[in-house]
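#structure-requests
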Amino acid sequence: MIDRPDWDHYFMQIAFVVATRSTCMRRQVGALLVLNKRILATGYNGAPSGLRHCLEVGCVRERMKVPSGERHELCRGLHAEQNAIIQAAIHGVAIKDAVLYSTHYPCALCAKMLVNAGVRSLVLSENYPDALSKDLFAEAGIEVVFIV
């Protein structure tokens, strides 16, 4: 018999493949926006298009010893969730009511964007130390599910 993954595990496996494109020196993150079992957009964390990657110029956050989950503005990269939202916008794809599949829990900046974009639920693999993002999702009534 074939060991066929359920939809959540299928999309999460794809998110981990997307993360392999990341150029972040600290954490590789991949994200997908899915609606009705169809992938709308993908994103991974890294420098803006056309700019040098952190792998080439080094990590500002490492040099400044910024702890994980703090001072997100001190980074030249975009987060995977941000890049997925931007990709959808560039291609004119509506993401309202989509499900976000991500290898990691979104930060508060991404949480605010996802709330405003109308994302209805999150399926995640790994946690992230940002209490504000958890509060924002709870207040917005966005379901958060962890899978391995």
